[in-house]
């Protein structure tokens, strides 16, 4: 069954994402965890063309906004940290922490992303210091294997309750 906006949040296969990220539609940019080894993660996002940003960016020439391409990388990095926290062999990270982006070092946009593309995000930890993590993320257009974005960014782990006081992830 194809994952659609209507059925993905009810899909059991989608639960590993929803139980680890605070974002929800229309601001959730990860559909699938392809692989994760505790140091790097590969995720995917299918762009159906029904997402709400296409009509305004740009009328007649729909392109995915660059900031949303970066957000997909940030969410993938957040998933990587959550998965690491669940694997005590990889990391002693606190399971009640969540990653918040603190710095975007550099970003380069290489390829336009259009409706019906599938994004393949590859994010790896380059360095870590206590609760600060530095990442390199790359987004490819899966169908053509073309590099769309490369971004270096950092995040800090904060208490989940401090930013989500009325609800928990999971």
In short:
This protein is of the alpha+beta class and 170 residues long. Helix content is 17%, strand content 36%.
CATH-assigned homologous superfamily: Hotdog Thioesterase
CATH fold name: Thiol Ester Dehydrase, Chain A
Give me the oligomer status.
single chain
CATH architecture: Roll
Summed up, the helix count is 3
- The geometry reads as globular
Strand order of the largest sheet: 1-2-4-5-6-3
Instruction: List the uncertain runs.
Output: none
CATH class: Alpha Beta
Tell me about the biggest sheet? 6 strands, antiparallel
Derived structural class: alpha+beta
Q: Note the gap between the termini.
A: 24 Å
Count of separate structural domains: 1
| Rg, alpha carbons | 16 Å
Number-wise, the strands total 6
**Helix-strand topology string:** HEEHEEEEH
Mean pLDDT: 88
Report on the structure:
- There is one protein chain.
- By secondary structure, the protein is an alpha+beta fold.
- The chain has a single domain (8-163), classed as Roll (Thiol Ester Dehydrase, Chain A), CATH 3.10.129.10.
- It contains three helices and six strands, in the order αββαββββα.
- It has a six-stranded antiparallel β-sheet with strand order 1-2-4-5-6-3.
- The longest helix is centred in the middle third of the chain and has 21 residues, at 66-86.
- The mean pLDDT is 88.
């Amino acid at each position: 069954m194809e994952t659609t906006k209507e059925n993905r949040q009810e899909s059991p296969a989608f639960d590993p994402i929803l139980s680890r990220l605070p974002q929800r539609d229309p601001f959730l940019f990860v559909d699938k965890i392809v692989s994760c080894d505790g140091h790097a993660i590969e995720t995917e996002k299918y762009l159906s063309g029904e997402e709400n940003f296409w009509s305004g960016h740009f009328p007649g020439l729909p392109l995915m906004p660059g900031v949303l391409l970066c957000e997909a990388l940030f969410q993938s990095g957040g998933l990587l940290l959550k998965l690491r926290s669940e694997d005590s062999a990889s990391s002693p990270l606190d399971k009640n922490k969540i990653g918040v982006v603190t710095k975007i070092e550099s970003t380069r946009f290489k390829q336009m992303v259009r409706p019906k593309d599938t994004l393949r995000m590859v994010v790896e930890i380059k360095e870590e210091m206590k609760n600060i993590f530095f990442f390199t993320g790359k987004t490819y257009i899966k169908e053509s294997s073309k590099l769309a974005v490369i971004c270096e960014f950092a995040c800090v782990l904060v208490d989940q309750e401090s930013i989500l006081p009325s609800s928990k992830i999971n």
